[in-house]
Amino acid sequence: MNTLTTRASSINRALDQIGDKWCLLIIQEVFWGINTFSEMLATTGASRGVLSDRLQWLQKVDCLTKAPGRKGGKRMIYRLTPKSIELYDSALMALEWERRFFPTLELESVTLLHRTCGHVFTPQMRCGKCNESISIYDVSYKPGPGAARDEREKKVRRRSSLSVQDVPSKRSVYRNLINIVGDRWTANVIALSFHGFNRFEQFHEELPVATNILTDRLKFLVEHGIFQQVLYKERPPRYEYRLTEKGEATYPWFLSILQWGDKWCDPTGAGKPMRLIHKRCGHTLHGQVKCSECEKVLNAQEVQFDIGDPRAA
Ligand SMILES: [Zn+2]
Ligand SMILES: [Zn+2]
Q: Do the beta carbons of residue 221 and residue 241 sit within 8 Å?
């Protein structure tokens, strides 16, 4: 069978379900209120074939449901499920990353209003115990009860020729992040670097994909400024791949995906493959996405998302 085995990881499990470029784009559209096939076709720019393939997949993994908009009506509406609603944290962290590294007039005119406190806010990933902002180097890892190996399908998906940069939707507010993580191997490689892996052989040992695929993905991540190559041996020249500031800043997004995977993508029921410890306070890490103004935990129902008119600014 066309499979490979990797160390069990909630990030990989989660992204094997929703980490495809088109799945991430579709979920984002539904978050911002787009929910029919024709609307999604127009906003994502995907072909009919790709769109219906991903919509079916997202229903299969329990991230979307489909039902008539009105009783007896013909128009089908796609809705988020309790599982996919909880991807909201990751959407907020993705938006923050995008604003920091790809600021545009359009992005600047997007506002998030926390109805609970009445303020326009910035979402922040904080420790549920000590409330400190979480940075990549404040976290350590231990094997959890579900530490094991996962057999994963090397599924080949119908691809679209459209690049994420050309997606027509104005609501596509974290397209650059999707471009970088929307390929399972690039996302897997970035996740490995959080654990201190930084050489080609180490990546390859953890992620036994074909070497040309791995080489290609590392090159992509260097070109997109996520990794920098640092010479560690002169003859023959050998390079390590170190996260740049931009690469490190993807961490809150990955952490939110990891926590979502812990909760929703555990096929064995054995528990978390990994236990995260917040070194600042010494407690098991439970990251919470909070409002910068009132420091309360954010949830989708209490946040108003507005796309302003950049020309009016
Ligand atoms: Zn803490
Ligand atoms: Zn607030």
A: yes
Closest ligand by atom to 129 CA? 1
pLDDT, tens digit (0-9, with 9 covering 90-100), for 84-130: 999 999 999 999 999 999 999 889 889 999 999 999 999 999 999 99
Q: Span 34-58, mean pLDDT?
A: 94
Q: Please, what is the Cα angle at 198 between 197 and 199, to 5 degrees?
A: 110
**Which pair of tokens denotes residue 177?**
């992040």
Which ligand neighbours the alpha carbon of 115 most closely? 2
**3-state class (DSSP) for residue 202:** helix
Report the alpha-carbon distance of residue 70 to residue 76 in Å, rounded: 9
Q: How far is the CA of 310 from the centre of ligand 2 (A)?
A: 24
For the chain, domain boundaries = 3-312
Neighbours of 255 (CB within 10 A): 24
Give the lowest-confidence range in 43-52, 126-135, 161-170: 161-170
pLDDT at 313: 41
Interhelix angle 21-31/37-44, nearest 10 degrees: 120
Q: Which ligand places an atom closest to the C-alpha of 292?
A: 2
Please give the sequence-ordered ranges of beta strands (E in DSSP) within 208-302, or none if there are none.
Answer: 227-233, 238-243, 274-278, 287-291
User: What architecture (CATH level 2) is domain 3-312?
Assistant: Orthogonal Bundle (1.10)
* DSSP labels, 47-97: -HHHHHHHHHHHHHTTSEEEEESSTT-S-EEEEE-HHHHTTHHHHHHHHHH
Query: How far, in Å, from the CA of 97 to the mean position of ligand 2?
Result: 19
What's the CA-to-centroid distance between 122 and ligand 1, angstroms? 20
